[in-house]
Amino acid sequence: MTGIFDKFRQRFRQSLPTPQELSRHRWLQPIAHRLLEHGLWHAKTESVARGVAIGMFWAFVVPFAQILFAAAHCVWWRANIPVAAAITFITNPFTIGGWLYLAYHVGSMFVAPDMAMPAADGWLGRLQALGWPTVVGMGLFATLGAVGGYLVVRLVSRLWFHYRYVRRLTRRYRSPGP
Fold first, then answer.
1. In the structure, what pLDDT confidence band is assigned to residue 148 with cuts at 50, 70 and 90?
2. Which residue has the higher pLDDT, 88 or 12?
3. I want to staple 56 with a disulfide (CB 3.0 to 4.6 A). Which of 35, 46, 79, 145 is the partner?
4. What are the extents of the domains in the chain?
């Protein structure tokens, strides 16, 4: 089973463009010097936490071009681009219906749905009536998800480093057996 995962990971990495290839792209020339920064591509705790926060935010804010917006903000905030791009897939065509449904119900707690007759008739009018509670719900998901994702990554990282430190100390000072 491990061999299959390793082959998939190797094939996936080969299909991704390198930072150098991206910096040579003609549309990215104005920011090419920023794309080659080390922290944008390597997994350091702070840049990964920022990448998770940016990816979570843009996953819920816009329904299209999420990776583009997340990558642009990763360059600005010096966050990990691959992590942010991966996190945006939380909202994908298979899950967006469920997220919108949840966003409507969460947003309805803060914004009362308009009970007046909508201007348009039929399904379009009903869809317009769902608008503001859904927008508020998605905004809450974006904000709370970004803050929560950042804090979870920092906490897990801190716990992992503490675990490794304690494990190293116990190995170092373990008394030799008879």
1. very high
2. 88
3. 145
4. 37-172
Say whether pTM exceeds 0.70.
Answer: yes
Q: What is the pLDDT of residue 58?
A: 95
CA 7 to chain centre: 25
pLDDT tens digits for range 63-79: 888 998 998 898 889 89
Look at phi and psi of residue 105 and say left if phi exceeds 0, alpha if psi is from -120 to 50, else beta. Answer: alpha
Residue 83 has pLDDT above 60, yes or no: yes
Please count the CA atoms within 13 angstroms of the CA of 7 that sit on its side-chain side.
4
Which string of DSSP letters, residue by residue, matches the chain? -HHHHHHHHHHHHHHSPPHHHHHTSGGGGGGHHHHT-GGGTS--HHHHHHHHHHHHHHHHH-SS-HHHHHHHHHHHHT--HHHHHHHGGGS-TTTHHHHHHHHHHHHHTTSPPP-SPPSS-HHHHHHHHTHHHHHHHHHHHHHHHHHHHHHHHHHHHHHHHHHHHHHHHHHHTPPPP-
